[in-house]
Amino acid sequence: MLTGLCDDQLVEDTKRQRLTAALRGCDRILSGTRPLTMREQLAALEGSGLLDDQPDHYGDGPVAVLEERVAELLSTEAAVFFPTGTMAQQVALRYGADHSGRDAVALHPLGHLEKHERHAYAQLSGLRAVWPTTEPRNPTADEIAALAEPVGTVLVELPLRDAGFVLPTWDELVAVAAATGAAGARLHLDGARLWESTVYLGHPLHEIAGLADSTYVSFYKTVGAISGAALAGSADLAAYARVWRHRYGGMAFQQWPAALTALAGLRRELPLIPRYVEHARTVAAALATLPGARVYPEPPHTQRFRLWLPGTAEALDEAALTLAEDEKVWFAARWQDAEVPGLAMTEITVAAPGLDWTADDVAEVGARFLARVAGRD
């Protein structure tokens, strides 16, 4: 059994290395961005003025500057840097439980805490999940009002990634915030990709965060930092968060590379996000014209959406790799076999490299990609 697991990991590592090498070698990229080496990531900071000061020492210096910047963007009293979003959200939920005396949390079964964090909220803090809905969308105000038991925190993921990067409308989110308050609970936003949610919601970051008692944002998602997250909210929450960050092992001696790449990413990416979201709609519409294609949501709510195409995940990944290696064009990879037989799914991310793709470009390259898939069948 152990040998089999090691072999599977070796295969996965080899595939990842091939994907990275192929993507780095491409001249044109539709989905995602070109991966950078460590040297390239630090070199990108040259000329920014961010490398001239002293490194942080247990959370001061550039880490403190980043915290101030996030608090300013979200118009909260304070923000606290965390090495991971998983850690930040555990602290947010623990705060809600401690201040309400309620160990239940309302969250979605497709949410990040249920799908990708090994149920850390339960294992580390003894909290329990209550599911307001199992529908592939965020909960409604009526569903919050109808919860079978009191909860300390209602968690809303913006966007809900594993449902297809879907968002509520602004009015729906306002209603959820009101229902949460009426239930005597705190509203926490899992805003890992909050940065790209403003276009669909039609409101700026500070107005979205203003509906909630606490908000988590990621720096490596959307913004492009090497790592890191922040938890924003009241001064009382921040003081609590700093204590529990230390207890969870997040009080690292120096974290300046993460902080500096986050500051640079906020400066570089935030002004471009509306263009990414708008162009994602163009890309999605073009992809939907491919034979057998399905796109969701249509149009996309953010700069990311899901795409299904005919074929197996293995065949589609191999077609993406050979297209990249032979023609230096990156279409889309990391396919997963779908529940519908004969289809595989991937997530499309439209960022800076994809902005120069016209609808005709997408359709033409997509046809060449599918021809490679058919050639493997």
From TrEMBL:
The keyword Lyase does not apply. GO terms for cellular component: cytosol. It comes from the Bacteria. The keyword Transmembrane helix does not apply. Residues 56-297 form the Aromatic amino acid beta-eliminating lyase/threonine aldolase domain. Its cofactor is pyridoxal 5'-phosphate. GO terms for molecular function: L-allo-threonine aldolase activity. One of its GO terms (biological process) is L-threonine catabolic process. InterPro entries: ArAA_b-elim_lyase/Thr_aldolase (IPR001597), PyrdxlP-dep_Trfase (IPR015424), PyrdxlP-dep_Trfase_major (IPR015421), PyrdxlP-dep_Trfase_small (IPR015422). Keywords: Pyridoxal phosphate. Belongs to the threonine aldolase family. This is L-threonine aldolase. It comes from Asanoa hainanensis.
